[in-house]
Structures are given as structure tokens and as C-alpha cells.
């Protein structure tokens, strides 16, 4: 190890401060991820509106090998959005704390964990890929993973079960909420010993992430614990960001699949706590119900419009939450439904960044890049002769219309607001291939008939 003399140490500290200052100034001048000023249902990055679309092989992406190649693949098909849980539960992962004589010391960091995290931040930032971080990886704190987690009192030298009330075993699913780890905050048990080390972890995370403009913050993954937990950490993280001169965006992800369940109220009804809403659990729903539920939530926040994100889209033949078709359909219904983001969940519960995911991401970008999606809204009222889940419309009437067909079909589209000839062009989604253009004059309604069964989209302008 190279040993720095005092002068070099001072220089290193100064340089680190300069780098942080440059990053903070860049964010303060409109470079960071924030609401799109002209339409806060969407995001803005580096001063321009951005539609977030993605997929990836894992949830804790900073821990995977070949990270650079994976991000390059995502970028090559038009993706710009990933999820990152701060998890260490998979083979080959490392924990954030250093082990000393067989037990973790929560006062000592594992440099490799943080090196991986910083590398991830750098690589995504270089590629203009937006990260949605989940600070507390819920499933790391239950069952077999809690048994090896550094925060478990039996695994560290810093506190005992008797001192903290933390269990050494949690054999139940997170929905049972039987780990007191999530009740440490002042509004609940105010367990100061545990909270000290929780804050220390979050402070360390922020010491890296606040330098970067491409980060969104979600408190948990599929949580069922007290709302006071997420509220505390959202406030804590926003306060730390404010001290650093950075404005950030936060949310929480609840477990319930029904977005109307009261569990979701803290995110939908309290924008002072959570600036945006993640509705990933709606992606357990199928077909027309999936669309209708999301549209009800868009209406719910109409008085305080903000982005609705989908950092997880379930559905793969290999998983339990729908098949490949469900996963692909959910992506398209989310984006044409006016939602701010959509990302395929990792295998085996989602399509990840496999071949089918790549085709759908590529085709989604092909059609949305030819539109001004930020002026469009869901337009199913413009469709007639339509069956449930047959077709979905996204439009700026009089200017442009996109219609998605999950499996072929034929509908009628009202284009009476157009005062010029319309151009119709079909996109074969799985081949990512456009057909030739067809011009239509003098019609207020047109019939859209898919060239064949399968996944199709059509652009009318």
C-alpha cells in the first residue's frame, strides 16, 4: 500500500472536495434527474426530457461481473434505466462491512463493496443511464440471508441481541414484518444503537451517490413495515442532500399488488415525503386490468402530477408472475399509458435483458423517438370496435398517434383532429422493423388492421 505524506494527504482531500463541488454545481444548474418542467409526469435529465426504459440481468447490478459490457448492451438497444438494490445476497457478492476474526465490525468498511458501487455510478453516469437505488434491500434482512447479514447481532462485534432487541433468526417472509431492524427509527422504537449504524451505512452510500446526477432513491423493496420507517429515511436522505447542495428525488416501494390498498397511501398522498411514485407492484396485474389500475392512479394524482415509475416489470416463462407475453405487454401498456419509466425485472421473474427484452426495448425506442411523447396522453377513447386488451392508444390528437396491439387485431382510430393527410407506418416489434409508409387523405376515422398476429405497433402522423 502506498503511504501518503501529510502534504499529499491534504492535496487528496482538496481534490476530492473540488470533484464534489463540480458535481454539485452541475446538479444545481439543471443537470440532475428531476421533473420535466413542462410536463412533470416525466423526468428531465441534463435539461432535456427523458423517457426511462430498461432491463437488466440482476437487481443489485453493482455486484455483477462484466458490468461494463452489460451496460453497453443496454445502451445499444436504446435502454437508459436500471435498478440497483444495495444487496449482497447472491453468490460472489460482498458485504459492506469488514470481517475481523470471523465477525463483522460495523465501524470498518469493506472497500471492495464500495469500489464496486462507485464503479457502477461512474459507468452509468458516463452512459447517461439513470439508476433507481433501493437503499434497504428488504430480502437481505429475512430468513437465510439475515442469518449471514452483518447487521444481525450474532454476526458482529458491535452490539448484542439483548442490547438492541434484534432477532438472531427471522424464519418468515418479509410480509410478516418480524425483524425489529425496521422499527429502529425515532417515531417507532428509537433503537439508537442500531440506528447509529444504519445512519452510518446511509451516510457512506450518499458520500458516493450524491456526487452523481443520475440517481433516484427508493427506500425499500416491496416493504410491508411501518410507514414511519420510509418516511424517516426519505427525510434523512433529502436533508443530507440539501447539506451537500444537491436536490434529489425519493420514493418508497410497497408490497401490495393492489395500488388502491391503503399501504400505498404514503407515496400517492404525501408528495412532501416522496416526490415520485413507484408502482412496480401493479406489474403483477394482467391485460386490461393492468392498464386500468395504472390509469386510475394517474387520475388520483392529477392535482399534483409527478412521475409514476415502473422499475420492475414481472413476467417470464421461467417465473411465477406471468409469462413472456405478460412481461412484454406490461412494458408497452406502461409507456403508452403515460408512465415515466418501465424496466424489465431480472430473470427468472422477468425478461431481464434477454433477446425478447432487447427487441421490445429497441422497438419501443424506435417508435417513441419518432414522437414527442412528452406532449402525448393515453388515448383509448379515440379507439372504437375494440375488445379488452386488443389495442392501446397514446396520442397528441391532431399531431400523432401510436397504437399498440399485443396480439394482432383490428380497431378504428379517430383522427378527426388532423387537418392534413395522415401517414401510417407499422412496426414489427419482435423484428424491430418498420414497414413502408401509407398516406391517407380526407378521412376522420381510419381502420388499423395488423399485418399478422403477434406484437405490432403503428404510428399515425
Largest sheet: 7 strands, antiparallel
Distance linking N and C termini: 63 Å
CATH class division of the largest domain: Alpha Beta
Sheet/helix structural class: alpha+beta
Helix content: 25-40%
- Poorly predicted residue ranges: 12-16, 18-23
For the record, the count of structural domains works out to 2
Report the CATH superfamily of the largest domain.
Answer: Glycosidases
Radius of gyration: 23 Å
The total beta strand count reads: 23
Amount of beta strand: 15-25%
CATH topology heading of the largest domain = TIM Barrel
Number of helices in the DSSP assignment:
11
Principal-axis shape: elongated
Structure description:
With 461 residues, the chain is α+β, with helices and mostly antiparallel strands. It has two domains: 347 residues, Alpha-Beta Barrel (TIM Barrel), CATH 3.20.20.80; 84 residues, Immunoglobulin-like. 31% of the residues lie in helices and 20% in strands. The strands form seven sheets. Strands 14, 16, 17, 19, 20, 21 and 23 form a seven-stranded antiparallel sheet that branches. A four-stranded parallel sheet has the order 5-8-9-10. Strands 1-2-3 form a three-stranded antiparallel sheet, with no helix packed on it. About 2% of the residues have low confidence.
Amino acid at each position: 500500500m502506498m503511504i501518503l505524506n501529510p502534504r499529499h494527504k491534504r492535496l487528496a482531500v482538496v481534490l476530492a472536495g473540488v470533484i464534489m463541488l463540480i458535481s454539485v454545481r452541475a446538479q444545481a444548474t439543471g443537470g440532475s434527474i428531476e421533473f420535466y418542467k413542462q410536463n412533470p409526469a416525466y423526468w428531465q435529465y441534463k435539461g432535456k426530457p427523458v423517457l426511462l426504459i430498461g432491463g437488466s440481468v440482476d437487481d443489485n447490478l453493482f455486484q455483477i461481473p462484466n458490468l461494463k459490457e452489460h451496460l453497453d448492451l443496454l445502451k445499444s438497444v436504446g435502454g437508459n434505466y436500471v435498478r440497483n438494490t444495495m444487496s449482497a445476497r447472491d453468490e460472489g457478492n460482498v458485504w459492506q462491512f469488514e470481517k475481523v476474526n470471523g465477525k463483522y465490525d460495523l465501524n470498518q468498511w469493506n472497500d471492495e463493496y464500495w469500489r464496486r458501487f462507485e464503479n457502477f455510478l461512474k459507468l452509468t453516469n458516463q452512459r447517461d443511464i439513470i439508476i433507481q437505488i433501493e437503499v434497504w434491500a428488504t430480502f437481505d434482512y429475512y430468513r437465510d440471508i439475515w442469518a449471514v447479514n452483518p447487521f444481525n447481532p450474532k454476526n458482529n462485534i458491535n452490539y448484542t441481541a439483548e442490547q438492541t432487541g434484534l432477532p438472531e433468526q427471522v424464519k418468515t417472509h418479509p410480509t410478516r414484518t418480524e425483524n425489529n431492524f425496521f422499527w429502529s427509527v425515532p417515531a417507532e422504537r428509537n433503537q439508537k444503537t442500531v440506528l447509529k449504524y444504519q445512519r452510518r451505512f446511509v451516510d457512506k452510500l450518499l458520500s458516493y451517490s450524491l456526487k452523481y446526477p443520475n440517481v433516484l432513491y427508493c427506500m425499500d423493496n416491496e416493504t410491508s413495515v411501518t410507514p414511519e420507517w420510509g418516511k424517516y429515511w426519505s427525510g434523512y436522505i433529502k436533508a443530507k442532500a440539501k447539506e451537500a447542495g444537491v436536490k434529489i428525488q425519493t420514493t418508497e416501494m410497497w408490497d401490495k399488488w393492489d395500488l388502491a390498498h391503503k399501504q400505498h397511501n404514503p407515496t400517492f398522498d404525501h408528495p412532501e415525503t416522496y416526490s415520485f411514485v413507484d408502482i412496480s407492484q401493479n406489474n403483477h396485474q394482467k391485460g386490461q386490468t393492468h392498464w386500468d389500475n395504472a390509469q386510475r392512479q394517474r387520475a388520483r394524482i392529477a392535482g399534483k402530477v409527478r412521475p409514476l415509475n415502473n422499475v420492475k416489470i414481472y413476467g417470464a416463462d421461467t417465473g411465477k408472475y406471468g409469462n413472456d407475453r405478460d412481461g412484454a405487454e406490461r412494458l408497452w401498456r406502461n409507456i403508452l399509458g403515460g408512465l415515466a419509466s418501465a424496466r424489465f425485472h431480472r430473470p427468472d421473474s422477468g425478461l431481464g435483458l434477454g433477446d425478447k427484452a432487447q427487441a421490445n426495448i429497441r422497438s419501443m425506442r424506435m417508435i417513441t423517438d419518432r414522437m414527442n411523447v412528452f406532449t402525448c396522453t393515453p388515448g383509448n377513447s379515440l379507439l372504437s370496435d375494440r375488445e379488452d386488451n386488443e389495442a392501446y392508444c397514446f396520442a397528441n390528437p391532431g399531431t400523432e398517434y401510436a397504437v399498440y396491439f399485443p396480439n394482432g387485431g383490428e380497431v378504428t382510430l379517430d383522427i378527426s383532429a388532423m387537418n392534413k393527410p395522415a401517414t401510417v407506418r407499422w412496426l414489427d416489434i419482435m423484428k424491430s422493423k418498420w414497414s413502408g409508409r401509407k398516406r391517407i387523405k380526407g378521412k376522420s376515422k381510419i381502420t388499423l388492421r395488423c399485418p399478422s398476429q403477434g406484437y405490432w405497433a403503428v404510428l399515425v402522423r
